[in-house]
Amino acid sequence: MAPRPGFVLEVDGSTPPILFHHGEGFRLEKLPVGRSRVIYPAEPLPGLKDPDTAIRHALEHPYDSEPLSALLFPGMKLTIAFDDISLPLPPMRRPDIRQRVIEAVLDAAAAAGVDDVEIIAALALHRRMTEAELRHAVGDRVYDAFAPSGKLYNHDAEDPEGMVILGTTPHGEDVQMNRRAAESDLLVYVNINLVSMDGGWKSTATGLSGYTALRHHHNVKTMQASKSFMDQHRSELHSSNWRMGKVLRQSGPKIFQIETTVNNNSFGTSGPLSMLQKREWEWSTKDRATFLGMQAGLKRMPASARRKVFSSWQAPYEMTSIQAGDVESVHKVTTEHVYRQHLVPVEGQTDILTMGLPYICPYNVNSIMNPILVMCLGLGYFFNLYRGRPLVREGGVLIMSHPTPWEFHPVHHPSYIDFFEQVLSETTDPLVIEQKYEKSFAEDEWYRHLYRTSYAYHGVHPFYMWYWGSHAMQHLGRVIIVGGDPRAVRRLGFMPASTFADALEMASDVVGRHPTITHYHNPPVLMADVT
Amino acid sequence: MTPKQWARRMSFPLRSPSVPASVQPKVEPPRTGVDFETAWARKPAARIARRVLHEVVVEPVVRVVADPTLRGLDRLEHLDADQPLIFVANHHSHVDTPLLLRRLPKPWRTKMFVGAAADYFFPNRLAGTASALALNAIPIERTKVNRRSAMHAASLIDAGWSLLIYPEGGRSPDGWGQEFKGGAAYLAIRCEVPVVPVYVAGTDRIMPKGKSFPTPGSTTLTFGPPVHAQPGEDARRMAQRIEQAVAALADEATSDWWQARRRAHAGTTPSLSGPDAVSWRRAWAKSASRNGTGKPTRRRWPEL
Amino acid sequence: MAVRERRTDRPNVHLVIAEALAGKRLFITGSTGFLGTALVERLLRGVPDAHLTLLIRPGRRASAAQRAKRELFRNDAFDRLRAVHGTGPAANKAFEAEIDRRVRVVGGDVSVDGLGLDDEGRAALAEADIVIHSAAAVSFDSPLDGAVEINLLGPSRIAGVLNELGVAPHYIAVSTCYVAGSRRGNALEEPVDASPFYVNVDWRAEVAGARRARADADAESRQAERLKTFRKQARSELGAAGGPLLAAKTEQLRQRWVDDRMVTAGRARAAAVGYPDAYAFTTALAEVALAETHGAVPTSIVRPSIIESALAEPSPGWIRGFRMAEPVIISYARGLLRDFPGVPEGVVDVIPVDLVVGGIIAVAAAEAANPRPDPTVAPPVFQVASGSANPLRYRRLVDLVSGWFSEHPLYDSLGQPIKVPQWSFPGRGRVEGQLRRSLNLVTRAEKGLSSLPLRGRQAELAANLEEKREMAERALGYVELYGKYAECEAIYGIERLLALQDLLDEHDRDQFGFDPRVIAWDDYVRNIHLPSVVRNARVRTTPGGRSGENRTERLRRQVLAPERQFAAFDLENTLISSNVVASYAWLASRHLEGRDRLRFVAKTLAEGPTLLRLDRADRSDFLRYFYRRYDGAPVDVIRADSAEMLSELILSRSFPAALRRVREHRALGHRTVLITGALDFVIEPLRPLFDDVVAAEMTIRNGAYTGELTAAPPTGESRAQALYDYAAAHGFDPAEGVAYADSTSDLPMLEAVGFPVAVNPETRLAALARKRGWLVEHFEKAPGYRHPALPLSTADQLAK
User: Fold this and answer.
1) What is the ipTM of this complex?
2) Of A176-180, B1-5, C233-237, the least confident
3) Interatomic CA distance for residues C713 and C698, integer angstroms
């Protein structure tokens, strides 16, 4: 049966309660009749039947570039970079797409007699990946072959000798890249496009870069000018990356970009979480039974046990397309494939946008989702998953559902803890935060030491999380979090509500007594094409 | 009642009948060796019995004796579950078959038959029945290609049964591999099914040829990417490719995947049959490539 | 009790005090006391041309003159005198000039034979016309020998010196009504031994007995098993705080034990011969001794009852120091005394200080105007008390006090008004039993808690218990003392005093009045005394929360002040909640699998209790014993593993607020140093957090650690030494240093710096920190992250 496209459901009397993700848990909420609608994602597209053959084909028939085999010659310096654990979400089942692609590329390199090969995890300012995470991404065979000899490692944006400035764009933006990658004869970038923001020059110009370059586009002005950064043509972030791309093209290494897209089969069509993939009125009795069992079980578990259960879930994603060759032509094709899976046409904006935030975001894989990440996931990612105009009108209300616990991971997010205590306690205005605090956090020796030797996100990363939501903060009249820890929610500058009904009540003094409501039934991922 | 009285009381049909002298007894063709009838072993009753035997007896023995670790199973992820496969492995000792029958991937393991040497496994009715029941084996002529057993195997594969076969025909006498025969390749081409190479490491130390009892050790099974028959390729050419695949797997298991790929592409993969030299040099080379099962060296600190 | 009619054995001579005392030289002792200050002030203001000489005991660091300037003339009693010269610095200068002109200060000590006077002092005494002796050890728990030296021998020493000098000034000794002892009936203005109830006791034997008692107690305190109990008590109080500190504490406890023995001896002896406490007992014997030894010096004795705040002079409600009744009133107002013994209809004999001063001055003036013919006659006694003329019933006092505090309640720390308890006047025995039982309960609970390895918030609980114990002890002390004073129900006659008053003219009677009948008790207690008591006691009388910074914020601001020079940090339980055992377990289990790992865990768990006991005994011995396990550990493997341990063990158990604090110090320019007993290769990854690190180092032999340390690990006193060396090396002044530590074993380091901070303190340290007013910080681990029970290394440790 062909996968059904995404659609907008007008809520009527007989519509069942709608599923809201609530961190490591779920809620079922009844939406008011007559003035609410729910946007459902498309069903997962079928994956490629034989991925390995498709990969080999893509390598040999690239877009606007010679085949990979022609680019490889004995004695060359080859560097392979791949996306870190922030993609795909939730992490996919083994074998990971990166493993398949990297093995295919290495096989071609072996055939061409290449000896000097290094494989780098393109972290930018994210945390280093642990051995277990690297094995999951590139597979045991590649790990055992390259890691012991130091040929497979994490990118280090703060290593003075390891980074090099390649030039500046006409706008005066420095372009910085990993020295090994910059001095290689060929840089192969292996990318997974989970959402339309990923890939293109954003991977190569950001993934292997450092703070000196990132601060030119990871700032409040760029973020607020990106209407939204998911739509490449109207994203200031992407235009800055594209300018950097031009500089890379002139003075950077030869780049062979490999981009893959996945379907949105996050919870599997059969198995314990398959009901999250279906529409509420299509739940079978078995689905309902498992859902109730899960709700009861989760309630009794301590938070860390819930986290362990959810973080052990691996999504049965399948590769829906793979294209390789020149960065920009490849990205055009990739974006089409992403839109084919994600885009849902929606007419008109609404007063209230509601969303249930799931347990996972790009920055808490195998970790804890602290309040700052909740804000970034809601106002940064989900709010910006639109093309054309935001789903909620200017000055409207955003209602998010998440436990927002006052909890931090001491090893992964040390600078978040200090940001939450020292900065957010003073102000939540992104511009003030940027001028007053960013420099001291970004150049703090201790954070740098943790970023380079421990598994910590860079000192400046919490600031980027806050800038990520600055467009939404500017646009929205009020943000309410349902079921969150009141102290933490207030510290974020939002309003805590204990139930969904209270939240609607609180929203009424901003958007009137009978506002129109749209529920964003995500995940599985979707993107609203608002006309 | 003494045994003699007991025996006399037991008359026909409890005892086998005596043959009247005037009649020429009908000479039944001896049903042993290649002609041994094994169809009954694939009936549901026999399969269930074999399943119980495997779960209750073979599994614990394999765990204790062989302590296997598996590598490369992800290479079979995308294969179609209800398409039969031909598993090809190097053969060092009798431990290989139970080990493989317990560790080959799930969907195919439950519907698997083994190609066993007719002269060794089916010399008489008793041994034949045991082999058919325990291993779901079918007799295969080792010395020359026997059309009938090949046709029989092909019909089974077409019926959905997967085949486990050792192309070397027999266990290696001194730990090194022998030359691969064409049987597996012929069946792969005829039934259009992929061949999955498997390299078994460590069983030669547990119970090499000539030793009758196993000493527990640890083994590693490395699965390779499936080998598909090229259009219009003859059996001999494919058999060579299968042997190279298993050799590459051996190289990967002993050194690491990247060096193995480079040697495979450069055609310098060390062959399975080892250096063709005097026996002590072969034994010496054999012990040199001892690792591949990856156990850490003795630990000095902390003393416990 | 009606006043008996006045005996007039003197002609009705008209007396003007100012004239009588004009040009006279007065020699006054005890001028820094409550009564002394009021007396000096009244003389300076009331008798313009009187010349005063003050005998003051020089302090340890201040000379007698400095003590006079600082403790006496800066008191608010002299505000009226200062106001005479106007306001501002010029007025002060003029005031000081007048003081220098009219007052001379000599150093001396009444508890030393010959008063410790130098020649100039003896000359001043010789010239004196009038000598007023008001110095005394009045606290109710003064040791027996102290009371004897000051109260008993003091007056006769002065008489002795006067006889030596051959002069005969008028010598007025201030005594107390309670020399009458614990009895009922009348106490007339007659010598102590004249009263029928006097228990004849030879005062010289008492002096000798007191001195021998001190020597005996001192000797006994030096016996071996007694000293052992002091050491045990010091260890229980300070824990493993290292040799020197424990020794100092032991000596302090020994001295306190001797003093306690002397106090109980004093109390017992006084009770045995029928006096409420040692002060009354020794003062009574002083009078007997003075009668014998005053020789040709004309002597008078003035006996005030319980002296309270001034009625009018120098200002209504003026008071100095907290002595007898005030602490009880404040405890009652804070709701701490549930009940108090006392007989409702009993008399509370209270007399304002200016009436006593007036009495003394009148006695001096009367003698000056009309000197007695025979100086050797028995010293006349003047009692200044309100019991007979204007008695204040105990029930009326309690009603007045509870009424006033209902209208002007005190407020607790939460800004809630405190409801004062209703007293039911039970017998002394019942209240004492109640208090003693609650005291035992609290003491046992506190001892139990302090043995548990509590820390941080729970330790706070134990600290509160200690506070409760101290309050219970104080309440018990008040009950015992005032219980005894409640038994002194004698009515003190004041005929001679009133007779004296008849000689005064209208002006003097108003200026130097001492007639107790003038006191309107309602007005005095409600409008004069209680407001002044509350004003002087640091209690909160407004509902509002503490305005401005509370204590912690103020201390924190001092700790983080730019002028501090360096900050020293302990590691375990101060920056991270892990210890040497955890880091060893992690490093050792790094490469263990399966059976080896299980055996290792079993072995370490089995050793747990012994390790904990050894650690509580002595920290550095424990470390040396424990570090021997690193013998044979390969250096390169350990160095690689410790980089990984930073994430799995150290950071996951760190206190983010503590790490922030280190970096705040660094941002302020303070030099930060980590001084820990942990091994250097374990804390190597933390090095970038500090400017310097002082840690235990281990010797290496052919690529492996030997398990032996290069020097004593920096814990206990060697940590304090390390801190001193560090400060000296960088030219820092330890008084300008900050130190963060968590257990009493770090006490030497905490005491070495000017600004110690107790972090998540153990019970004992929490109590010490609270008592010494140190800053206490509670740093917690990052909320939400739950690390596994056993500190063993696993690959996916961080996947939690």
Assistant:
1) 0.83
2) B1-5
3) 10
